[in-house]
Amino acid sequence: xxxxxxxxxxxxxxxxxxxxxxxxxxxxxxxxxxxxxxxxxxxxxxxxxxxxxxxxxxxxxxxxxxxxxxxxxxxxxxxxxxxxxxxxxxxxxxxxxxxxxxxxxxxxxxxxxxxxxxxxxxxxxxxxxxxxxxxxxxxxxxxxxxxxxxxxxxxxxxxxxxxxxxxxxxxxxxxxxxxxxxxxxxxxxxxxxxxxxxxxxxxxxxxxxxxxxxxxxxxxxx
Length: 222
What we know:
- By secondary structure, this protein is α/β, with parallel strands linked by helices.
- The protein has eight helices and six strands; from the N terminus they run H-H-E-H-E-H-H-E-E-H-E-H-E-H.
- The longest helix has 16 residues, at 19-34.
- The mean pLDDT is 97.
């Protein structure tokens, strides 16, 4: 069964034993055997591995992984070093630069955010090569909704960044008033100029964390 290696194992133990997850696991075995699936099966749960439950300060919700070769590695919006950052990620970097003055990073790997407490969670964790949304509705959403509920129940204040219609639909799961929810359109080139650019979300995150005596996020990447 799944072994994440931190507090998520205990928190999600019952979830991993439920019929929907066992069906999803069976589906994934078939898919990985017969198709090209992203990310690598050992990277599926990287968002949880890099950011234990008690360390989460910020949640960024993506949709499903990148479906091009060598891109997805289990963190939403992130690509490994050496891979060209996709347009949405470039727009994220552009907004951070505009808000905070940090240089545009030389790569698109966001592991440094994850280790600081930014949970980079897609709502669907796998995808067929070249087929966006191909694993939608197979069970991942039930698991990731439960992850959001568990985070909502946290006593410590968190920030949820909901970009685009799919992410914003999860707002109903966030009922704890001590958390901050920031919404905008998706950073993709199709919508970024309609509210993502100028959203000031990254500065707002750090202001909220500072007000709650929580260490801020260093959004720059070396």
